[in-house]
Amino acid sequence: MKHYLLLAGLFACVLSASAQTVGTKPNVINQGINPMTQTDIRGKFINEQRVRDMQHDNLMANKHKPSRSIVVNNEQWRNTKIVEKDANGNVTGTTEFEFLDNGKIKSQIVNYYTDGQIDGGYMITHEYDDNGNKIKEVVSNMVAPPNTYAKTQETVWEYNDSNLNTLYYYLNYDETGAISYGYKSVYEFDSFGHTTMQEESYYVNNEWKPSSRGEWKWDGNYRCMSLRLYDWDNTTKKWQSGNKEVSEHSTFGRVNVVYGKYDWDAIKQDWVVNVESIEGYNDNGELTLNSYLENSGGTYSGWRYNVDIISEQYRTIHYYDWSQATNDWIETMYGNEIYDENGNIATSSLYYSDNMLRSTSEYTWEKFNIGTDVYPDCYIVGEASEWQFENSLVGKDMGNGIVVWNDVTIKNGEMFKFASDDWMTFDWGTAYDGEYIPFDQPVKLTNKGMNIKLDMEGTEMTFKSISLNVLKGVVAFETYPTSVGSPEAKRVNIFANNGKIVVQNAKDVKVYSASGELISTAAVTPVEKGLYVVKAGGKTVKLNVN
User: Fold this and answer.
1) pTM of the model
2) Contact indicator for 172, 181 with CB cutoff of 8 Å
3) pLDDT confidence tier of residue 69, bands split at 50, 70 and 90
4) What's the pLDDT score for residue 1?
């Protein structure tokens, strides 16, 4: 009977579905009574559909709109207890873990058992900072069962604002609770996150005794100096030995140690030269100092010359040898050079140190056409052009490799480079991210370097001209003078940045040491740590360079 009822029900459902599909023939409306055309019917349908859409929109507007944030419940399993048993089922040890709400371990307690009784164990506790970094770990051994502990080791970590580890140390404790041994490491970093110092110490005789100290200097991402000091004398508080190696990039406007190796003099507490090669350049990239010094078994030998550029037509070159007698450089000769209006040397005279003439030379120059070098166009290409080489961004060829752009507006923080459209012939950028580029004076770029970003106060700046020597990568950004009333005119700024003293928007720059010695007239001056006085643009500022 149930089967018949089920079949009857299924048959009724089929009839219902069939009726919905086929339906019955609708009644025909009398056209005389309701003269509605086919077009009128379609319009009525569209209007009714609009009403239904509006009703739906109103309904949805009143509903709560869900957040579009993605929420993930990060659930993970954590082992909270371990019980160890022997072959007979007797408990031999337990380990219990306690966790913080964020899943990091808070403590770990280990117990050992004999005949069902706790007879030993240890405990480890952990602490964290707000960034989730572990800042403390304490290990304690059980001294009296079941729950009396004594601290045996404590480890501590500290971090700077960039979340970099600046301090790590641990201390071991004996049964009396006194410190028996310890190790400590301190770190310092530059603004780019590079390690600039690490000092290691050991805890001996109730005080920290340094064991080694390392220091590093960086030019962008390039490590240009490293040193290590050893054998600390805790009585004199002085290092007894060490070594240093320097290899700096050649940079305009400063003296560069191209390569140097040094040993630490414990008596003088200073570095002594093994090998040192030095080059110095002025702001225009002209070599003004070249020096080489070598130590062979305690005996020094070397040579040096420096160039005094008095004017475009006249310069003097001084030649030196290293003197064993005076333990210093002594001048052996000097020469005078005179240049013609084309920049070619015309005459030179060489003198001994006692001003006695050694020789003279006269030079004759002729111009020869040895062919013409043709290079592709150079563009300013960057974020403003979506890194596309547009015709409006081609520099004007001024001859001899000089390319100029006039009235160029660059936005603050906008990245760009100087390049040819093959990215091979020209590709000039900076040595490292964030390198400071002064305005109104030449600055050397780097081949295949980093993207350029200009430091400015406003949202954008319009330059009167940008001049680039595409063969040497020397560029100058010429600003409009303040008297023009340009909205981009900037005030004089004097500040220290990454081991350099920087002066913006002033040409009369003078940088003095704390003793009053004039050490630089450049807009960007690399300096050692210390106090300096800077005079520029009618301002006088004291800077403490760290």
Assistant:
1) 0.58
2) yes
3) confident
4) 39
